[in-house]
Amino acid sequence: MPSNKSVSDAPISQFTNCWILREHALQREDLWVREGKILDPEKLFFDEQGYADQQVDCEASIIAPGFIDVQINGGYGVDFSQPSEDVTAGVSLVAKKILEHGVTSFCPTLVTSPPAVYHKVLPQIKVHNGGPHGAGVLGFHLEGPFISLEKKGAHPERYLRTFRSGGIEDLMEAYGSLDNVAMVTLAPELPRTQSVVRELCQRGITVSLGHSVANLSQAEDAVQHGASFITHLFNAMLPFHHRDPGIVGLLTSDQIPGGRTVFYGMIADGIHTNPAALRIAHRAHPSGLVLVTDGITAMGLPPGHHTLGQQVIEIQGLHAYVAGTKTLSGSIATMDMCVQHFKQASGCSVEEALEAASLHPAQLLGISHKKGSLDYGADADLVLLDDALNIRATYISGEEVWRKQA
Ligand SMILES: [Zn+2]
């Protein structure tokens, strides 16, 4: 027993027999945790001779920072954008279920909706930490309604909006409030967008470009005003053209203000993005790649037929079809599947695959000092994985919240 626990009397956990992801490499080290944070063992040894209250044998697991999903519309039968449902219960259900896929925090995502939906839903889900009850909520991702008619995808046309008056006033009219909002996806070619981008960024809200027909200079202009993300790269934007590469051109643009990174979301489910396109993006701009599930209501449901809203859908493997057709109804891959697929399809390292689901989304949201890394002082949100990147266990604030049954 140490004679002097000068810093804190809280119990210390020592994760042993593991490879931890730190400074872009898997390192054969123990991980120390106290009061939900990652502890610097050197200070510990100095004060307390390496005493741990609890040891966790990780059985040669990889330990990575918990995954962060910045774009998830629902899952397990829940659609966050459906106002008829009990929103809090729906978010809680999904938050609990995604623990088994290694997700420790997420941005519930709303597709284009009428103002009444935003006004009702946004105040109900506050930003909060995760725990045994489920993954933490980092704030909403509002995808629309300020997007392009031509690239609306599955967003309902009748609710699309433009910036008519001053910009931000239109935004407030639609959303009601920006409390609990982490990110907004908009089309930068809409008139009066640039002042909205600047205003959102000043309020600490991440601006993403998507569902858009913007050319490259419009996209660069938005980035110069503070936009920092591209929503599901390649999907719902102009295809790459060598004389005007559009939003895709941001990956190699020389007009990005110094020191900044433009991040981009990839749905790496093997269906929404061809593996060759995934490789092009990754090789052009590896440090900006953020894996997202873009998960829909059917994510996590078993194969077969399901009634979702007005539609019947049929799940076959990783595909969700409108029943009786070959029309894809959205992504149903979970985050752990996306990490595995990304690694296999891109040929990237284990470290890169894991950082695309943890460090990069944390950097995007400006929270990398506490999430997305195993640096000293960061939140002890962890995933334990085997060599094939299957999830063995998930921890939030140093506490086990899910473990695969043997
Ligand atoms: Zn979308």
Describe the structure.
It is a single chain. With 406 residues, this protein is of the alpha/beta class. It folds into 2 domains: 7-65 and 374-403, Roll (Urease, subunit C, domain 1); 67-365, TIM Barrel. Helices cover 22% and strands 26% of the residues. The chain is built from 10 helices and 22 strands. The strands form 4 sheets. Strands 6, 9, 10, 11, 12, 13, 14, 15 and 16 form a 9-stranded parallel sheet that branches. Strands 1, 2, 3, 4, 5, 20, 21 and 22 form an 8-stranded mixed sheet that branches. Strand 20 (382-385) and strand 21 (391-396) form a beta hairpin. The site of zinc ion has 6 residues, from loops. Zinc ion binds at residues 143, 153, 211, 231-232, 236.
